Amino acid sequence: MQPNQNPASLAGRTAVVTGGAQGIGLEIARSFVDAGARVVIGDLNMDAGVAAVEKLGGTDVARAVRCNVTESADVDALLAAAIDGFGSLDIMVNNAGITRDATMRTMTEEDFDLVISVHLKGTWNGTRKAATIMREAKRGAIVNISSLSGKVGMVGQTNYSAAKAGIVGMTKAAAKEMAHHGVRVNAIQPGLIRSAMTEAMPQKAWDQKMAEIPMQRAGEVTEVASVALFLASDMSSYMTGTVLEVTGGRFM
């Protein structure tokens, strides 16, 4: 992979996006395709993955692979699909995630373990396996999706907040390990982003969150995707180990 003359371009590059069949992940994939990349989506829901490929422009620019990010072999197969299908692995976005919200008193051990496994182990699998490939090329960008919940902690999210905070620490540690190999590792912490999931929230909860946002509006998935594009591209060529908040100023 050669540096592009236009630092915002991803022409000639291949990206993998976990949890890429919908929501923020799909919008990140779309922004990458629009910038000239080919994208491989990893998702548990293959029907949604196939539909996403069509939305992105078909199999010439996108592929979908069923992937459980907690399974090492699944992540190996996902990255192999990028190399076999499009010739390289230049960008890795670890976005796959779930929520199992409950107060600490009522949360089950299973729901704690599952959220930690998907977010933290899943991001570790994606980061370490992508880094192994990228270090051979002496170049690559890894973007990990954390959350504002990992900065401040949210009621009912001891599992999710812990996992998302862990992603920040993991990102910084991996960035230090990989910097001299030419591989950059950065993270994004979205705040309240308008999606099917957040719009299903009770009105009272929505209003409470809105009151905390200086910009007085929710973010859009496109506003997270554009930051992912920045971190994946040469626009951020001298940035590694950073955490960018996309929050409208909430909890500065």
From TrEMBL:
<feature type="domain" description="Ketoreductase">
    <location>
        <begin position="13"/>
        <end position="196"/>
    </location>
</feature>
<dbReference type="GO" id="GO:0016616">
    <property type="term" value="F:oxidoreductase activity, acting on the CH-OH group of donors, NAD or NADP as acceptor"/>
</dbReference>
<comment type="similarity">
    <text>Belongs to the short-chain dehydrogenases/reductases (SDR) family.</text>
</comment>
<keyword id="KW-0560">Oxidoreductase</keyword>
<dbReference type="GO" id="GO:0030497">
    <property type="term" value="P:fatty acid elongation"/>
</dbReference>
<dbReference type="InterPro" id="IPR036291">
    <property type="entry name" value="NAD(P)-bd_dom_sf"/>
</dbReference>
<dbReference type="InterPro" id="IPR002347">
    <property type="entry name" value="SDR_fam"/>
</dbReference>
<dbReference type="Pfam" id="PF13561">
    <property type="entry name" value="adh_short_C2"/>
</dbReference>
<protein>
    <submittedName>
        <fullName>3-oxoacyl-[acyl-carrier-protein] reductase</fullName>
    </submittedName>
</protein>
<dbReference type="InterPro" id="IPR057326">
    <property type="entry name" value="KR_dom"/>
</dbReference>
<dbReference type="InterPro" id="IPR020904">
    <property type="entry name" value="Sc_DH/Rdtase_CS"/>
</dbReference>
